[in-house]
UniProtKB/TrEMBL annotation:
Residues 1-26 are annotated as: Disordered. Coiled coil: none annotated. Keywords: Apoptosis, Cell membrane, Cell projection, Cytoplasm, Fatty acid metabolism, Hydrolase, Lipid metabolism, Membrane, Transit peptide. This is Acyl-coenzyme A thioesterase THEM4. GO terms for cellular component: cytoplasm; membrane. It catalyses: (5Z,8Z,11Z,14Z)-eicosatetraenoyl-CoA + H2O = (5Z,8Z,11Z,14Z)-eicosatetraenoate + CoA + H(+); hexadecanoyl-CoA + H2O = hexadecanoate + CoA + H(+); dodecanoyl-CoA + H2O = dodecanoate + CoA + H(+); decanoyl-CoA + H2O = decanoate + CoA + H(+). It is a peripheral membrane protein. The keyword Disulfide bond does not apply. Its main location: membrane.
């Protein structure tokens, strides 16, 4: 990935485009974590993803922990955090291949309570690809010991830069249709 260097925050400023998408590359942290729109100002993943990489076998590996701010029950993660971080990390698999995609379907199994502020790992792989559809699965484990805490699977649909413009046009049409009602 072409870059312009690493700033004080450790976030790498991109100067290239994703192959085939025409979209600007999103910034990455020093740990290789792609930052979505909401996390860019902070320069860190608010869900607690600290490192990400693609291994030799094509499996994406993440190091993370649940921030205390996402505590649900005492000392355990809110289920919404678990679902959100699985959605985010599963969707990073196409990103790590230079492909922009959006979540079309997501199924989450909450296997055991997830402790907050403990090291966790997440493995993410593609079960198969059919045209623009990626069928992706992943598993979250406790870092020491490897006990499975949660699993997820879903479908991601590849998009190009017209996705957001199309959305903006659709939304403008919705607003126009309701004006004067
Ligand atoms: C230039 C600036 C760049 C900046 C660039 C930075 C990038 C920096 C990224 C960092 C990384 C973050 C990545 C986050 C990734 C998630 O957070 S994903 C968020 C959650 N998921 C979504 O928002 C997806 C919402 N759903 C959809 O857009 C569509 O249902 C899908 C998944 C694309 C459908 O695809 P499909 O199965 O091929 O179906 P298709 O027949 O094309 O469309 C089905 C329906 O959706 C509609 N549709 C499809 N696409 C759209 C659209 N774009 N707008 C409106 N309606 C649409 C169709 O019109 C159709 O509507 P109906 O005719 O049924 O009324």
């Amino acid at each position: 990935m072409p870059t312009t260097g690493t700033g004080e925050s450790g976030v790498t400023a991109p100067n290239g485009h994703w192959a085939g998408t025409g979209l600007p590359e999103p910034p990455r942290t020093a740990g290789g974590v792609t930052l979505c729109g909401g996390c860019r100002a902070l320069g860190a993943c608010r869900l607690g993803v600290e490192r990400e990489r693609l291994d030799e076998g094509g499996v994406a590996r993440f190091e993370l922990s649940c921030p205390r701010s996402h505590e649900g029950g005492p000392d355990v993660a809110h289920g919404g955090w678990t679902a959100a971080v699985l959605d985010d990390c599963l969707g990073h698999l196409p990103l790590l291949h230079g492909v922009m995609s959006v979540t079309a379907e997501l199924t989450v199994s909450f296997v055991k309570p997830v402790p907050v502020e403990r090291p966790l790992e997440l493995r993410v792989w593609a079960d198969r690809r059919e045209g623009s559809r990626w069928y992706i699965a992943g598993e979250m484990t406790l870092a020491p010991g490897g006990a499975v805490l949660a699993r997820a699977s879903g479908i991601w649909v590849t998009r190009d830069r017209s996705h957001y413009a199309r959305h903006a046009k659709w939304l403008a049409g919705q607003v126009e249709a309701t004006e004067g009602q």
